[in-house]
Amino acid sequence: MKHTACLLAGLLAAILFSEISSAQPIGTWQAYTSRSTVLEVTQDQSGAIWAFSEGGLFSVENGEISGAITTIDGMYRINPTTMFYDRETELLWLGYSDGMFESYDPETGRFRQFSDIARATRFSPRGVNQFVMMGDEVLVATDFGMVLFEPEREVTIDTYSNLGDFPSGSRVNSVAVMDGRIFAATPEGVAVSGTNGDDLVVPDSWTSYGPESGLGSNVRDIVTFGGDVYVLMGGEIRRFEGETWQQAGYFGESDIEHLKTSPNEDYMVAWNDEEVFVRAEAGSEMTFAPDDGLPLHYAWVDEAAQQLIIGTTNQGMYVKELQTGAVHEQYLPEGPYMNSFSDLVVRDGVLGSGSNNLRGRRGTGSTQSGYYLFRDDQWENYNDLTDEVLAEYGFHSAFTSAATADHFFFGSWGRGIVQHDRNTNEVTVWNTENSILDGFTPGSSFLVVTGMTADRNDQLWAISHGNTINPLYRFVPETEEWTVFPRLEGLTGTDWYDRVTVDSNDQLWIPMINDRNDGRGMVVKRVDGEQIEDGVILRDQTGQGNLPHPRVNAVVQDRRGEIWIGTQRGLARFTFPQRVIDGSQSDRQASLIINADETADSPFLLRTSHVTSIAVNSANQKWIGTEGEGVWLIEEDGGRHRAVKHFTTDNSPLISNSVSSVAYDDETGQVFMATDRGLVSYTDVVRGSVADMDDLFIYPNPFSYRDEDDERVVIDGLSPETTLRILSVDGRLVRRLETRGGRVEWDVRDFNNERVATGVYIMVAVDSQNDQRGVGKLVVIR
């Protein structure tokens, strides 16, 4: 009886304790993708509007925008090629460029993916271009013909890749069904099936219409309207009249790029980048354009509400009255303005990122690309549409970032540097006219900032790309004073400073490239007051730096003071970076990362990986972003290193394996990953430690094996290096964990790897450095 009373008392204490505990869910993913560029629109039987954007799906119902649907929610990819809503089954169908397709049930939120087309290795490419219903079956237009799919049994019934006289495997851009016949639009013309139920796999079952019947090359869209079949070809609309295709004469001389009809075929809808044209079945025609003048992507007619829905670039959806053209509503989902993120930086819980649509750091970016701040779970978008100062200076195409205690800085392609006050949101633009900054070539006003960083004194360091005389600058925010520093002597004209990192020894680590963007190794030199002492040049040759590759994309200092570099071909580190300049030749040789897995193909970890970025977490583990391999998490194991996690699009909600930047939030344990398709985050077990331990946060609490599929408990609120002892209520030691970082997982098992019994368990944490103690309780229910 006494034991039961104690157990109940402990259970009550643990439950009360759990009520005041809170923490970010561990192992969860979040997507932060832009939904402002609407690529396609459809509508379900209830009138809800469904749209897919560059950042995934969303819907509008009763005038309200729902949240984004992305890979986090089970979607195959965030960028479908086509979408179709089946009013009979109430399913949304999505197709993709690699041949995958899926159905989505809005009622249950469930996705069902089908790989039949993607696995058809006979043809390549295998993209999905359109869906139409044929009774209870789905007819899929693909890059190699058409596929007839039965959803109920989830099987492919037939593949039609031989369409009459057209080449086998011809791409079907669009498909329509009328009076039991299939009309397929291809690059060669239109293929039409017979009506007598012949086997459509046989080429003779199709009639081919090409130039001899009035059709040119690449028929783009095909629709049925008013009992006739129409195609879009070469910017004009043609109608099928018996055995020939004649000009329809619709919409005057307008150049048409897309052609659709409304669900009940009351309206024909055509559009180009600037205007939408609508023709009623009765013959009247109307022309519409979005008020902001941004390029159009899609148009849809809501027949019941007599409204036109237009998808635009960066401004979401416009809904206009069909009869008057007046704007009824604009739906612009909240979130990042564009779907591009570059050079992530986190400071004091706030994420900063550049935004640009540059590729390979060449060309002109969108004037509406600026930068973002993400704080308190809210996105702040800064560009020439949202900020007067940025508009005045024509600032856009930000792709480098840095942060101090009071400011964020963003460097651009040709437009200088923005200084953003994080407390007042005051914006200052620094360029060649109001500072000593020099441009792309000496004397040029075109200032390209390829690298920026903040040092331990909260001073900004910046690189002027292409300037071979004065490429390096330091800025003191308090005095607004800029100082210029020349290049290190001994460099050639093809050695251009690219990026910059300042370590705890006040040494500058500066990767270099040439005018073709090829790697040229790295410079290391020391800051000494207003002067910069001579440094060293590190190359990829043995005895001259031993870099894994001359293209160095990332430089970070870890929590032990080591310098880690990521290159186009692998990782390396400098164990004693303070000796690189003044030490011996052996001190300035990079060491490859030894693989703890002795059975691996290479003795060096990630030896051939194209590393783009590195972030260090509170436990000194490294998050490694790569080009094509997703993201790795590695940690030290007895002087060697091993991969702890590896996230790709195949095994996680990561939306692309092309990762350009990673950043770690010490306060929450979130790892942000910028890809070529948007931004995601993963909440790591490790997070920043606390200065003083007291009550530990333990969750879930109570813990039930029946409720917790992954069987783990998180203990939060730890100091940097902690020994955690887990005790039963009678004082028996159940498990001991040595931890680094602010939190740790326990698999709810004892020393013998057996599940612990029902009861109350005491957690006692002791800091190995200063004897801080933390205590908590956990209830386990089997």
Automatic annotation (TrEMBL):
The keyword Signal applies. Keywords: Signal. It comes from the Bacteria. This is PorZ N-terminal beta-propeller domain-containing protein. The keyword Signal applies. Residues 1-23 form the signal peptide. It holds the Pfam family PorZ_N_b_propeller. InterPro entries: PorZ_N (IPR048954), Reg_prop (IPR011110), WD40/YVTN_repeat-like_dom_sf (IPR015943). Residues 49-207 form the PorZ N-terminal beta-propeller domain.
